[in-house]
Amino acid sequence: MFGFECQECHKGVVRAQQRADIPFKVDGIPFNVPEGTVGVCDNCGAEVLSAKECKRWRALFEQMQQQSDRLLCPEDIMGLKAQLGYTTTQLAGLIGATRQSVTQWMNASRVAPQSRMADVLLRLVRECLATDSVEVLPFLTSLARDNGIDLPAPARSRLHMLGRSASPGRAAYDRAFQGRPPSDGTRPSLRVVPQGASDTAA
Ligand SMILES: [Zn+2]
Prior knowledge:
Elements: E1 14-26, E2 29-41, E3 47-50, H1 51-67, H2 74-84, H3 88-95, H4 99-105, H5 116-131, H6 136-146, H7 155-162, H8 168-177, E4 191-193, H9 195-201
This protein binds zinc ion.
């Protein structure tokens, strides 16, 4: 798999290195890979990730997402459907999904859970039912934060809110964004090598 010439410096050789607790991101969501193989150049230290290993990490991530409460579980979605008094088709229509997808998300032994995008939309609907009025941007940024994605206060919303300083929206906005630590941006990024490239070079 490895043992090919480094594409960064063209001097060193990329060699396999076993690592534990590797910081990685899938669709912007950070998670740590318990154990994995990374290619490291013995000259410049550039790191590459094979497409196969990347796929394995993604699968691992999906599995971890399923086991965590980061995605609404099938019961949550069935509960939401019942709360709305909707059929599966109607719930699908509400959020722009297909009936087949929603059916799959509600399957207790599902293999294809909803994407984070669909999950965000479902949570937004749930929040609307629970609280009547939702400050959408603070709600979305707070959900992102729960997923380890640190977002700054949206600039456009800030201007809008400043004009309505006494509004409850302003209070929600302040609660959501005050005292936020800046994004540290320290997570290393790994370059993914297309499967074919590393196979032929090896
Ligand atoms: Zn190199």
